């Protein structure tokens, strides 16, 4: 299996509760390595651009409001089959459906405030990483 990269966001509900370290620990224990990380306050423009794929969906405005409501931690993760590995440790989008021991089952407050975002494909991972990081910021 090849070592690949994926993108992760620790969302405002998790940073507000000081869970950055706990979430990162779960990612690392799942075999992922943080090769770039920064804590930012996402601007409205960034949120709208990042979630543009959802622009026509009814939750788009609320999603952008939520993602700009507090600091987030954007990360590049590396590991074997990183996208799948990250999605497995994140758990289902709805924490009620997430498996025990996953980030969302452990820390999510709701389906909206579900603590983490992760890329859903290698192609999207590359786009999402490039949205927030310059290549020289990835130093794994």
UniProtKB/TrEMBL annotation:
Catalyzed reactions per annotation: a ribonucleoside 5'-diphosphate + ATP = a ribonucleoside 5'-triphosphate + ADP; a 2'-deoxyribonucleoside 5'-diphosphate + ATP = a 2'-deoxyribonucleoside 5'-triphosphate + ADP
UniProt xrefs under InterPro entries: NDK-like_dom, NDK-like_dom_sf, Nucleoside_diP_kinase
Domain of life: Bacteria
UniProt-listed Enzyme Commission number(s): 2.7.4.6
Cofactor(s) needed by this chain: Mg(2+)
Pfam families in alphabetical order: NDK
Residues where ATP binds: 11, 59, 87, 93, 104, 114
Domain Nucleoside diphosphate kinase-like residues, every copy: 3-140
Transmembrane segments: none
Molecular function GO terms recorded: kinase activity
Signal sequence coordinates: none
Assigned protein family: Belongs to the NDK family.
HAMAP family: NDP_kinase
Subunit composition and interactions: Homotetramer.
UniProt function note: Major role in the synthesis of nucleoside triphosphates other than ATP. The ATP gamma phosphate is transferred to the NDP beta phosphate via a ping-pong mechanism, using a phosphorylated active-site intermediate.
Name of protein: Nucleoside diphosphate kinase
Species classification: Bacteria, Pseudomonadati, Pseudomonadota, Alphaproteobacteria, Sphingomonadales
């Amino acid at each position: 299996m090849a070592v690949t990269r994926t993108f992760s966001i620790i969302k405002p509900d998790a940073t507000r509760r000081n869970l950055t370290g706990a979430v990162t620990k779960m990612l690392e224990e799942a075999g992922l390595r943080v090769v770039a990380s920064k804590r930012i306050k996402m601007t409205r423009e960034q949120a709208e651009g990042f979630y543009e794929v959802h622009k026509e969906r009814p939750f788009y405005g609320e999603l952008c409001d939520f993602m700009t409501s507090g600091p987030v931690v954007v990360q590049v993760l590396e590991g074997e089959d990183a996208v799948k590995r990250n999605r497995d440790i994140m758990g289902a989008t709805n924490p009620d459906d997430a498996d025990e021991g996953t980030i969302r089952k452990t820390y999510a407050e709701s389906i909206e405030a579900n603590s983490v975002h992760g890329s859903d494909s290698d192609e999207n991972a590359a786009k999402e990483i490039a949205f927030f990081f310059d290549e020289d910021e990835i130093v794994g």
